[in-house]
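It is worth pausing here to work through a concrete case rather than discussing structure prediction in the abstract. The textbook approach is simple: state the sequence, then state the predicted structure, then interpret. We follow exactly that order.
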Amino acid sequence: MSLPIPVSAIDLLLCFEDFVLLLSFFSFQFIILFVLSRREVSRRTSIPLTYTLLIWYMPQFILLVLL
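Step two, the predicted structure:
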């Protein structure tokens, strides 16, 4: 059984590279927002920031899963 679209090793490497770049970008954002949220917890105003994190990350996570 063969694939309908021929896939070369270069194509797979390029897809993997894009995935790694996206993942590193999202993890970098997550680290920044996590540090900000820890600072907000110390100020006892963490609930609005939690909603902000959800609103900020859900579309990006969905896009990452769809890609």
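Step three, interpretation. The chain is about 80% helix and 0% strand. Helices lie at 9-42, 46-66.
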